[in-house]
Amino acid sequence: MAKKPKLTLQQKRQVSSNRTRRMASKRPTSELDDNQLGEQQAGKVIGRFGKHADVEDQLGVVHRCHMRRTIGSVVCGDNVLFRPGKDLTLNVAGVIVAVEDRKSVLTRPDYYDGVKPVAANIDQIIIVSSVIPSLSLNLIDRYLVASEDVEITPVILLNKVELLSDEEFKDVDKQLDIYRKIGYQIVYTSCKTLTGLEQLSSCLKDKTSVFVGQSGVGKSSLINALLPDANETIGDISDISGLGQHTTTSAKLLRFELGGELIDSPGVREFALWHLPIDRLTYNFKEFRDYLGGCKFRDCKHGNDPGCIIRKAVEDGEISAQRFDNYHKILSNMDELRPAHIKV
Ligand code: GDP
Question: Is the Cβ atom of 235 under 6 angstroms away from ligand 1?
């Protein structure tokens, strides 16, 4: 009989990891037997709760599903292949077997994985700001950079505009003109007077959107105004007591009557700018792109460096001085944005 070959340490590790994987797949699971499942079909994830997901089939029927261990993460907005359960008395009857490639994904920093997806296939990010306590262009710029970085179109929404006098409104509109000039859409709304909701509805039509922005700016109020059945908790009290929307980690996909979808969850709302390498930050100021590579020095920091073409464009009035200033403010805070345990 042939002598058993001696395994190297690496081979031993491989054998052990293969065995663990094989055992994991044989372990009794809460997943369902083949004969309890119907034909594979396409669906969309419209809800995500702990270990389960709600998948809507092409007829609009919702199936609560397990997830095959092998398929990685499943998030709201994912297009999936799934097998519905035959036993309709079971709470969780189906199984998601595959996730289609995502055209876009929102992520957040995660302690274990570095980054964790929270929603998929999003067309636009509605950056919600309000005039109370004060309008922060720096914050808007941070969200714009974060949106550009995930390559999802941002829209700037300013809520609570009924609190502004005509004069103040004109002033704010002038400030926001810098964004209009570089191609960003701006929407003004008030949930109190219902101003701008029609414009917002047409902006959301036939697209998958998310609302992001600081707590208290009116995201829940806007969602309720657009979708009266959504029943979002309004006010900041829930954030403090922990009894409101922040107690659940689930995400849901809501449908607008006129067409279009909104994905909402605390994870989605908390989407924010976190650490980026400098060149990515610079690239995400989209009006800088045409100038990149044109500076005298390849490692130009776009500060006081001689021959900086971006600074020259600011001086010539081609790039907004306010945006340039915010770029440097964000740059100087970049390291603080990195969660301590995450290396880049
Ligand atoms: P969220 O934390 O972003 O979801 O904000 P909420 O929707 O919970 O709203 C926070 C507070 O702002 C609540 O007291 C709302 O009633 C108030 N609010 C929302 N929209 C408006 C608005 O258009 N005008 C005014 N004056 N207050 C608003």
Answer: yes
How confident is the model over 282-335, as pLDDT tens digits? 999 999 999 999 999 988 989 888 899 999 999 999 999 999 999 999 999 887
Which of 208, 233, 264 is the C-terminal boundary of a domain?
264
Centroid of ligand 1 to alpha carbon of 42 (angstroms): 38
Domain count along the chain: 3
Q: Of the candidates 235, 265, 237, 236, which has an alpha carbon nearest to the alpha carbon of residue 253?
A: 265
Q: What dihedral do alpha carbons 268, 269, 274, 279 form, nearest 10°?
A: 80
Residue 242 sits in the same domain as residue 117: yes
Asked if residue 153 is part of any domain, the answer here is yes
208 and 294 share one domain: no
219 lines ligand 1 (CB under 6 A): yes
Both tokens assigned to 57: 């089939």
Cβ of 163 closer than 6 Å to ligand 1, yes or no, is yes
Kindly state whether residues 71 and 140 are assigned to the same domain: no
Query: Ligand 1 center to residue 157 CA distance, Å?
Result: 13
- Same domain, yes or no: 156 and 221: yes
Stretch 151-167: mean pLDDT: 97
Q: Is the CB of 164 under 6 A from ligand 1?
A: no
| Per-residue CA distances from 204 to 97, 125, 233, 256 (Å) | 31, 10, 21, 8
Lowest mean pLDDT among 13-27, 53-67, 109-123, 152-166: 13-27
Please list, in sequence order, all residues whose beta carbon lies within 8 angstroms of the beta carbon of residue 261, skipping any fewer than 6 positions away: 77, 207, 208, 209, 253, 254, 255
Tell me how far the alpha carbon of residue 219 lies from the centroid of ligand 1, in angstroms.
7
Residue 307 CB–ligand 1 contact under 6 Å: no
CATH number, domain at 157?
Answer: 3.40.50.300
Least confident of 64-73, 171-180, 185-194, 237-246: 237-246
Give this prediction's pTM.
0.84
Q: Ligand 1: distance of its center to the CA of 243 in Å?
A: 18
State pLDDT tens for residues 162-191: 999 999 999 999 999 999 999 999 999 999
Q: What angle do CA 66, 69, 74 make, to 5 degrees?
A: 65
| Ligand 1 binding pocket includes 83 (Cβ within 6 Å) | no
Is the beta carbon of 223 within 6 A of some atom in ligand 1? no
